[in-house]
Amino acid sequence: TQESLIEQFEQLIKIRDRVSDVHDAAEKIRRIRAQIEGWEQRVQGGSGTEDLLETAASLKVKLSSIETELVAMEPPPGSLRGEVSRLNGQLASLAGVVASADWVPTKQSYAVFEELSERVDAQLGALQQTIDTDVTSFNKLIEKAGIPAVST
Predict the structure, then answer these.
(1) What is the 3-state secondary structure (H, E, C) of 20-31?
(2) Which residues contact 4 (CB under 8 A, 6 or more apart)?
(3) pTM for the model
(4) Residue 143 confidence class, pLDDT cut points 50, 70, 90
(5) Helices 50-70 and 87-99: crossing angle, nearest 10°?
(6) Of 20, 17, 14, 21, whose CA–CA distance to 110 is shortest?
(7) For residues 63 and 26, what is the distance between their CA atoms, to the nearest angstrom?
(8) How close are the terminal C-alpha atoms of the chain, in Å?
(9) For the chain, N or C: smaller number of CB within 10 Å?
(10) Using CA atoms, how far apart are residues 91 and 146, in angstroms rounded to an integer?
(11) Rounded CA gap, 101 and 4, in Å?
């Protein structure tokens, strides 16, 4: 029925929006990391920068952990495992399931979407927390050093 197709379309739009949220967060992480790496290069070998470099390394680990949960990363060299499907891949697979028939999405499809959405929200919350605390603290450290801060 027309109502079935509308319901299917609406669910596909919700999935698309969540995939966009995931990709936007991954892009934000990559922008922040690039700024941190640029800053690390500028202060490399400077005196009194050890604490700042350690803080930068710790911050990059936190950001990478969040990014890995959001999007598939390449496996380490020599790894026998292929890429692991992360939230963006799982949402894309769900979209394929929902779009596979001209019918109302199954109850299971809705349940999977809710579970994936909760996981996305958890990672987005972790990213915002990292920005609010760790990036802010890092920016204060580099301001003391007289270097432009990292922008989000």
Answers:
(1) HHHHHHHHHHHH
(2) 102, 103, 104
(3) 0.84
(4) confident
(5) 20
(6) 14
(7) 9
(8) 46
(9) N
(10) 43
(11) 10
